[in-house]
Amino acid sequence: MTLAPIILFVYNRPWHTQKTVETLKKNELASESELFIYSDAPKTKQNKAQVKEVRDYIHSIVGFKKVTIIERDKNWGLADSIIDGVTTIVNQYGKIIVMEDDLVTSPFFLKYMNDALSYYQNIDTVFHISAYVYPIHDEGLEDTFFVKPTTCWGWATWEESWGYYKKDPGLYLQNFSKKMVKDFNLNGAYKYFDQIKLNQTNDLNTWAIFWYASAYVNNGLSLHPKRSFVKNIGHDGEGVNCVESLEFDVELVDKYNITFTNNIFENVKARVAFQEFFNGLKVSIFKRVLNKLKKLIS
Predict the structure, then answer these.
(1) What CATH number does domain 6-297 carry, 3.30.420.40, 3.30.43.10, 3.40.1170.60, 3.90.550.10?
(2) H helices within the chain, ranges in order?
(3) Cβ(133)–Cβ(250) under 8 Å?
(4) pTM for the full model?
(5) Distance from C-alpha of 42 to C-alpha of 36, rounded to nearest angstrom
(6) What is the dihedral of CA 108, 114, 120, 125, to 10 degrees?
(7) pLDDT, tens digit, for every residue of 99-115?
């Protein structure tokens, strides 16, 4: 099996970046995997010192088959940097594992991702492999299952699937019916579609919602594990798209004994569990994320 390259996006968080790389290096397939690191340039003078610290660190990284560093000479912003980087690398290698600089991984993260990419590579309706799953009630669920929503905390895909990606809010606003919006929003449990509207009005500039929308309109499915192989450590208020929160904390997989599902359709139990999770949040995470993003943009 040819291993997928890993692409890591970093900016101005040296501690988070180091924790992300340290746990990734502990994966048994790390030494056989190529790592591409995209380092965005500082947006303001206040960011320069931290960006330099991150860049000094990433140039010291060893433990992978090959490390390639791409240092942006201007600030692209997270959304544009990810779209460009993923497109470039996945078109070159045919498949890809994508990470940001605030993700702690299980030692079995790379094995799970590569096994899943291999297992589902010829199934057109499988667009996305997620390493993270929300802390849902998982009784009765298989080791892995499919739902429509994608996630962005450690994920993988193929060139053919990513070829459907379109960041075009007007396209989705025009073509989504009320029924589709309701389904897209998990029956109103989470207001995903509002993010598309806010991108249209330039109140947001994000990428992940358009990956979900691109998969959705092409009948794509997202594979999720019953237990997470990745944990986000960015909910300390420092990340671009993260707010302070403990609601998304999970325990990482500590052994690898996983069966990949052959039920290539949306798992109703899992979808209901996702809906219950979002409905159960005491404070609207969605509103907090949007408010933070608006402040950063302004």
Answers:
(1) 3.90.550.10
(2) 14-25, 48-58, 78-93, 109-119, 159-162, 169-175, 178-184, 192-200, 208-217, 268-279, 285-297
(3) yes
(4) 0.91
(5) 19
(6) 90
(7) 999 999 999 999 999 99
